[in-house]
Structures are given as structure tokens and as C-alpha cells.
Amino acid sequence: MAMLLANRGAQLSLSALTVLSERMQDRGRLAAGLAARQGLLPRQRDALLRPAARSGPSRRAAEAVALRIRLGLDEADLRHWLADGRVAEALIGLAHLAGCPAERVEAAHRAAGLRALALIVRAADLRLSTLGAFLRARPGPAPTPEAAGLAVQVHRTVTVARARTMVAEPPEAGTAAV
């Protein structure tokens, strides 16, 4: 994508530039490529550099999970999605298996603490190795051994029934998601 953007001979429409800006991860190369393009107004360049607001999982991810649910969603599907880097599908599938909203699972996955994610994985009655796969798929630095150990402890000590009860409860105002 960066090569296409850097190609001065490529005549890219504003809609093509929009698609490129949504898909490019390297915002610095995107900014450099847009700055080199003639004919872009400053406000258009600024709009293309602004990160797109995402309000939940993509439609494609939701459709993929819906199909697997109809066919019989199981733990192997989640592990396959995580191994392929399709974290959005895995999180939606986890929400379905745990019986909680996808937004809650996404918040637990992004949260600094690991307790909420461990409880959700336990509520879905998934193996400890699947919790490890979700921990490895988290954005940012890898969890510390102490934090990972705490997540494992939560997974092992809380029963599936208790985890399901805790996950089903609405979060209290001003506290973490679970």
C-alpha cells in the first residue's frame, strides 16, 4: 500500500486514498505519501490522516462469527482465529460463548488488568491454553509473568458457574468491566 501511495504516476481518487488511509498501519509513511501528492487540499490531507472511529467489530467479522455460530461455534474456532491474527472474530466468538456483550469482551481485552479477560474465558468454559492465546493476542507489550500468573490463578480458582454469574452482572459505575 505504501508503494502505491508513493507512486507519483498512480492517479488515485479521493475514495481510493480513503481506503488506503483506513488500511495503512504506518501513519508516518501515510503522512509522507499524502504530503508528496499534488492536488490534495490541506483539509483533505488532515481528514485522511485522522484515525477512523470504530464503534465495535467490523461487519465482516460479525458475519464470519454468525456463520460459525449457525454451524456450531467451539473453542477450536477461537484458537484458529487467534492463530490467524483475526482477533476481532475471536473476541466476538468469546462473547457468544461466555454470554456477554462483545463490547464487554473487547474492553476486557484492551484493559490493563487481565482479571476480566480471565473471567470471561472461564465463563465460556474454555481451556487455560486458550486464555494464554487471548493474552498473547492482546495489543501492547506482553503481560508480565506476575500478571499472567494472576490471570491463570483466577481461571483456575473461579468455577464456570460463578464466572458466568459475574460476567452476566452489569458492571458497576466507575469500576472495571468485570
Characteristics:
2 domains; 178 residues; mainly alpha; elongated; disordered C terminus
What number is the mean pLDDT? 85
Shape: elongated
Termini Cα gap: 39 Å
Task: Count the domains.
Answer: 2
Q: Identify low-pLDDT runs.
A: 173-177
Helical coverage, percent range: 55-70%
- Count of discrete alpha- or pi-helical segments spanning 4 or more residues: 12
Proportion of beta-strand residues: under 5%
- One letter per element, helices H and strands E, the order comes to HHHHHHHHHHHH
Largest sheet: none
Number of strands: 0
What is the gyration radius calculated from CA atoms?
20 Å
Which class do the helix and strand fractions yield? mainly alpha
Brief write-up:
This is DUF2336 domain-containing protein. This protein is mainly alpha-helical and 178 residues long.
